[in-house]
Amino acid sequence: MYPEIHFWNPKTSSLHKELVYGEKWLRFSYENRLGRVGLWAFVKRSWFSKWYGARMNSSKSRQKILPFISKYDLDQEEFLKPVSSFKSFNEFFFRELKPQSRPIDEAESSIVYPADGRHLVIPDLSQVSTLYVKGQSFDLKSLFESGKEANFYGEGSMLISRLCPVDYHRFHFPTSGKISTATLINGSLLSVSPIALRHNLSIFWENKRYLSFLQNEHIGKIAQFLVGATCVGSVHLTAQQNSHVKKGQEYGYFSFGGSCVITVFPRHSVQFNQDIMEWSAKGIETYARMGEPVARYMT
């Protein structure tokens, strides 16, 4: 059995136990032999996520909203629309927030978190020693499905932003620049929960994901992956493709389930904040919200 999952919260200067949505089911699926059989036979298949997604789109699913808000202590004052306006649990899940609830760091050189969630950084992808579980290596070639891109970013750096079902599920641009058209890389839809990732890091490059590139004048070509997961069959892009975007501008949203945004920077282009580097070196994620600074570009 894996131990409890903890993350660092800089606002309270303490470690918090993560309330993993569906933890009993996840531990059965990834830590029990019988559960692993069901995982590979059913859960990783796209039809399972489509089926569950359809349930979350039904009007009956509205009954889940208020109990969910109460259990996870969500702040309704942040919501752009009242709870009564949501016609399904999924509408609530990818809710918009009031702009003032997620202010964007204004420092010119700052790079901000692209999403709410729990975050890990890898300052040098050629020197990965600890990632969730010590000794796991990151396969860039498989992630990009390209040896050329893997070589380009091989000594770059990475920010992994893991969204839990309790998080705000819209994702944004970490800095300004010109965004490319997103390319779909098909794959499975396995969970990106910490329980699953500690068992199998390759989920990142096995799952269905979208890849786009953001060209910034100071940093260069930033790669951004939007990774789907169990019960997340859909990634919705709201920003115009091949256009100039601003730091903190909304890029899109995920439908129901946990998800992940992976941001990859070129070599020697950014400097991450010291605190997240220290906790990431221990394999412990840091909680942060979209718009808060995570790094600065190097001049």
Give average pLDDT, whole number.
85
How much beta, percentage-wise?
25-35%
- Order of H and E elements: EEHHHHHEEEEHHEEEEHHEEEEEEEHEE
The biggest sheet, with number of strands, parallel, antiparallel or mixed sense and barrel status, is: 11 strands, mixed
SS field, number of helical segments: 10
Radius of gyration: 18 Å
Terminal CA distance: 46 Å
Question: Helical content, roughly?
Answer: 10-25%
Structure classification: alpha+beta
Q: What are the segments in which pLDDT stays under 50 over at least 5 consecutive residues?
A: 25-30, 34-44
Number of strand segments: 19
Estimate the global geometry from the Cα principal axes: globular
Fold and architecture overview:
With 299 residues, the protein is an alpha+beta fold. The protein has a domain at 102-297. The chain is built from ten helices and 19 strands. It has helices at 23-31, 33-43, 46-56, 65-71, 89-93, 140-144, 147-152, 194-199, 203-206, 274-281, and strands at residues 6-9, 14-17, 110-112, 117-122, 130-131, 133-134, 157-163, 170-172, 177-179, 183-185, 209-216, 220-227, 235-237, 243-245, 250-254, 259-265, 270-272, 285-288, 293-297. Strands 1, 2, 4, 7, 9, 10, 11, 12, 14, 16 and 18 form an eleven-stranded mixed β-sheet that branches. It has a three-stranded antiparallel β-sheet with strand order 3-19-17. Helix 1 (23-31) crosses helix 2. The radius of gyration is 18 Å and the shape is globular.
